Amino acid sequence: MDSNLFKYVWRNSRPEQLIILGLVVLAQVFYFASLNIPKTIVNDGIEGKAFKSAQTVPFLRIDLPIPSFISDVGSIRLSDGLSLAQWPYLVGMSCLFLVMVTINGLFKKTINTQKGRMGERMLRRLRYQLYDRILLFPPAHFRKVKQAELAGMINNEIEPLGGFIGDAYVQPAFLGGQAITALLFIMLQNIWLGLIVIAVLAVQAFIIPKLRRKIVALGKQRQITARQFSGRVAETVDGVQEVHIHAASNYERADIVGRLGRIFHIRFELFQRKFTAKFLNNLLAQTTPFLIYLIGGYFVLFGDMQVGAVVGVLLAYKDLPGPVKELIDWDQQRQDMQQRYEQVIEQFEPDGMLAAELQAIPNAAAPALSGAVQLNGVALAEEGGAPMLDAVTLSFPIGRKVAVVGGAGGGKEALAQVVARVAHPTAGGVAIGGKDLAELPEAAVGARLSYVGQDVYLLPVTIRENLLYGLKFRPRGPAAYEGAALRQRETEEREARRAGNPVLDVAADWVDYEAAGASGPHDIDQRVIEALRVVELEADVYRYGLRGTIAPAERPAVAESILKARAELHSRLADPAFAGLVEPFDRDRYNRNMSVAENVLFGTPMGRTFEPDNITANPYMRKVLNELDLATPLAEMGVEIARTMVELFADLPAGHPFFEQFSFITAEELPEYRALLTRLSGRTVADLSSEERARLRALPFRYIEARHRLGLIDEAMEQRLLAARQAFAAGLPTELASDIEFYDVARYNGAATLQDNILFGRLVYGQAQGADRVGDLIGEVLDGLGVRNAVVQVGLDYNVGVAGKRLSAGQRQKVGIARALLKRPDLLVLNEPTAVLDAATQQRLLDKILAARGALGVLWTLSRTAQAERFDEVIVMQGGRMTARGAPSELSGDKTYTDLLAAG
Amino acid sequence: MSIHEEVELLKGVPLFAKLEPNKLKLLAFTSERLTFAPGQELCHQGDIGDAMYVVLGGAADITIDTPSGPLKVAELKKNGFVGEIAILCDVPRTATVTVRETLTALKITKELFFRMVTEFPTMAVEIMRELAHRLDDTNRQLSAMRARAA
C-alpha cells in the first residue's frame, strides 16, 4: 500500500477527481454569471434607471462579468437577447434570478454528492484492504496484536479520511486558483504592494507549518493513546472474570484513570497549540492591510500612485484571506490525515505477510492429497524463545493412523501444528505427496487437511452454521435474486467493483455439499447428524431440539411429526406403568397440576400481556372473572393462602430460601398480610377496601392444587374456573388474539417448545423420577416414529452464543471435531482436542473417530499415552526431536515411551 | 391428599413425634411427597445422596451389593426412614432401596434435614435412637456370623 495518502487517493480515484474538478470549474461560470443579476433587478427592473433613456431594454443579453481583480474590461457579451418594457423586464429578470439560484444550488449539490460518494468509495476500499491484510497476516503476528485495536483502526481511526478524500485535490486546486488570480491582480496594480503581500504570505507559509509540526506529533500521540485505551477496555471485558477473582477492579480503575489523564493532557495541549496557531495566523493576516495602508499611502502622498489603485488593492486583498485561510486549514487537515493514514498503514504491514495468491478463489474442488507427509529438518521457534521443534525429519503415508506422544514441551503440539500448517516452520519444510505445504493454496489445505486444537473457536451462530463453516471454501451456487432484488444486487456489485472490493456474495450458497458426502441442502443434515453421533453430541443437540420452538408454517413436516408423537405419547401413557405421570391438557377438565391462572388462560402466552407477572392486573382477565362472580371466591382463597403463609413462615428469618422457593408472600409483605388478616377477623372480604381485595385476589393465581395441596379448589370451584376458561376464550377481543396460543390437541403450538408440544400436558407432582421417565418415553416414541432426527435438526438451530459460550467447553470441542470430520479431509490433525473430557469419554471418542475415519489419515497428539495402542504408528517426541517411532508393539523397548505409558 | 391430611399422617411418624403442628405443616408444605411404583429405586448404592426419605406408606427392600450378588439386609415399612447416612456423613449411598409395594415417601432435602435437627432436638434424638438400633442389629448379626464361622 502507498505510504502517502495523496498517492493512494490519486491512484485509486483519478477519473472521479478530474470529473469533480471539471464540475467545479463549470460551476464557477454560472456563479459569476449570476453575480450581476440582483444589482440589475434593483437598478433597472425596480428603480428603472435603464428605462430613463429608452422604452425597452434588452433582456437575456448575457454579459459575462470579469471579476474586478482580473481585468478592468468589465464584461464580455455572449448574447443580445430580447427587448422588453420595465414590468416584463422585471418579471423576466426575477425569474432568471430564480433559475440561476437553482442552477447554482444544483451544482453545489452535485459536487458535494460526487465528493461524498468518492470519499465513501475510497473509505470502503481502504477498509476492505486493511481487513484483507488481516487475513494475510502471518499466524504468529496475532500473538502481538490486540483485536480491539485492529477493529478500532479499521472502523474509527480512518473514518475521517472519507470526508477529507473528497476535498483532497479539489479544494487546493480551487482555492489556489482563486488566490493566485487575486495576487496577480494586486501585482498588476502595484508591484511593491504585490511583493509585500507575497512576503507576508511567505512568512505565514513558513511559520505556520512550524507551529503545526508539534500539533501533528501530538495528533499522532492522541491517536495511539486512544487506540491503546480501547484495547485496554476490551481487555477488561475479556478478562473480567480474572478481575473479579483477584479483586483487581480498583487496580484496573487506577490503570484507566492514568490513561485518561494522559489522553487529557495530550488533547489539552493540542487545543492550546491549535488556538495559538490560529491567533498568530489571524495576526499575520491583519498585518497585510496595515502594510498596504502605510506603504500604499506613502506612494500616494509621495509617489505617483492613485488613491483608486490602493482601494483596488485593498479590495482584492479582501478576496485573498478567505482562500488562503482555507488553504491553510486544508493543509492542517492534510497533515492530520496523512499522519492518521500512515499510523494505521504501518500497523498493517507486519513481516512475513502471506502471499495473496494462496487465498485465491479456486475454480474447482481441491484435488485429494496423496502420497507421504514428509517433514524435512523442520524447526519451529518462538521469537527469542526456546525451539519447540528442532530439525525434525520424518515421513509417513497420509492415510495412516499416527499417534504423537511425549511429555509437556516435547514438541508434540508443535509437530501437529506444523503438519496442519497452523504454524509455519522457521526452518525446513513440510511436503505432502511431494508438494511443498507452504505453497499449497489455502482452499486446498482447508478442504483436504483439517486441524482441531485444544481450544475450538465457535462463531455466535447456530450449531448447524458452525458445523457447515468448515465447508465454505468458495461460492458454489449464486443466490437467487428476482425483480427489484436482482437490480439491487447488480447495483451492489457495480459499486463493489468501483471500490475495489471483490464481487463475492455472502448470501450465495457456499456450502461444499460434495465434500461432506451429501448432494445438496436436503441431505446435508444427515451427514451433520452422523458427525454429531461420532463425537457423542447428538443427544445434547436432541435435547436442544426438544427445548426449541419452530414456526409450524415454515416446517409443516416437523409440526406434523410432533403432533403424531403427541398422539402416540398419550396412548402410551395409558399403560399402567406410566399411569398418573402426566395430566394432559383437556379443554373440559380442570388441570390440577397447573396454576389457577394457567387453567383459565389454557394457552401459551405470546409476548408480555398474559405473562404470569401481568395476568392478575390484566383488564380483560379481571372482566371475565368479575362477570362470573369469581372475584369474591378468589379473594376468599387469597385469605386462606395468606393465613397459611403467615402461619407457616412467621418464625422464619427474612431472606430464608424458603420464601423464595415456596411462599406466595415475600418476607417484607408478611407483616402487612398479618395486619390485613387481623382487620378481617369477624368480618368478610366485602368489608375490605378494594385495594386489599385486589391484593388477596392476586394470590391464588399462582396456586397449583397438586403442588401446594391446601385443598382450596374443590369440584365446584373447578367447574367455575372451567366456565371462566370457556368465557375467556369465547370473548377474547381480537386485539388480544395474538397474545395467546390456546391449547388445542389437533394443532401444533408455535409458542411452546417441541417437548411441551409432545407432552401436551403437565407432569404430575409427586411422581418419583417423573420427568426422567416421561423424557425416556418421549425418546422412545420419537424413535419409534422415526422423527428423532427431525428434533435433532431443530436442535441444530440452537445458537451457541458469543465464542460458543452457551455450550460447555467439552461441547465446543465436540463441535470442533464434528466440523473437521464433516468435510472428510485426507488428513485429520487432532491436537489433544478431547483433553477437557473425562478419561472414559476420551477413550470412547477416540475409538469412534478412528472408526469413522476409515481409510483416511489421522495424526493425533495424545495427552494419555495409553491410548496410543489404537494407532498404526506412534511418534515419540522429546525436547523438540523425534526420539522413537514405530508400531505400539515395537516400542515396548523404548524407555521414553514406557515411562510415558507408566505416567498414564 | 391435602396438606391437612398429610400433617395428620406425619403426626403418626415417630421421627416427628413431639413436633409442633405448625412445624409439621411447614415440613409438609416445603417437602416433596413422592410416589414410587414397585421396582423403582429410592436410592442406589454408590450414588451421591442429597435427600432422606420418610416412608408414609408402602414397602421396600434394602439391599447391599456383595461379591455374590445383592444381599437383602432389611425392609423399609411405613414410618421408617432411609437415606440419612449419606447426607449426615457425605458418603455415597450405602445401600440400594427398591420398592416392593407402591410407596409414598416424604423427601427431605439435606438442607431442610439439618435445619430440622438443629431446631428440633427431639428429632435428632429419634434419629440417634434409630441409628443405635441399627448398630445393635449389625453387631448382633456380626457376632452370629462369627459364631457360625468359628
Lay out the secondary structure.
The complex is a heterodimer of chains A (904) and B (150).
Chain A: H1 5-35, H2 37-46, E1 57-59, E2 63-65, E3 75-77, E4 82-84, H3 86-136, H4 147-157, H5 159-165, H6 170-189, H7 191-238, H8 240-245, H9 249-302, H10 307-319, H11 321-347, E5 372-381, E6 387-397, E7 401-406, H12 412-419, E8 427-432, E9 435-436, H13 442-448, E10 449-452, H14 463-468, H15 483-498, H16 521-534, H17 538-547, H18 556-572, E11 582-584, H19 596-601, E12 603-605, H20 612-615, H21 619-627, H22 631-649, H23 657-662, H24 670-680, H25 690-698, H26 705-708, H27 715-730, E13 740-742, H28 754-759, E14 761-763, H29 770-785, H30 788-795, H31 809-822, E15 827-831, H32 839-853, E16 857-861, E17 873-878, E18 881-886, H33 895-903
Parallel strand pairs in A: 7-16, 7-17, 10-15, 15-16
Antiparallel strand pairs in A: 1-4, 2-3, 5-6, 5-8, 8-9, 11-14, 12-13, 17-18
Chain B: H1 3-11, H2 21-30, E1 32-36, E2 41-43, E3 51-66, E4 69-76, E5 81-82, H3 84-89, E6 96-109, H4 110-119, H5 121-149
Antiparallel strand pairs in B: 1-6, 2-6, 3-4, 3-5, 3-6
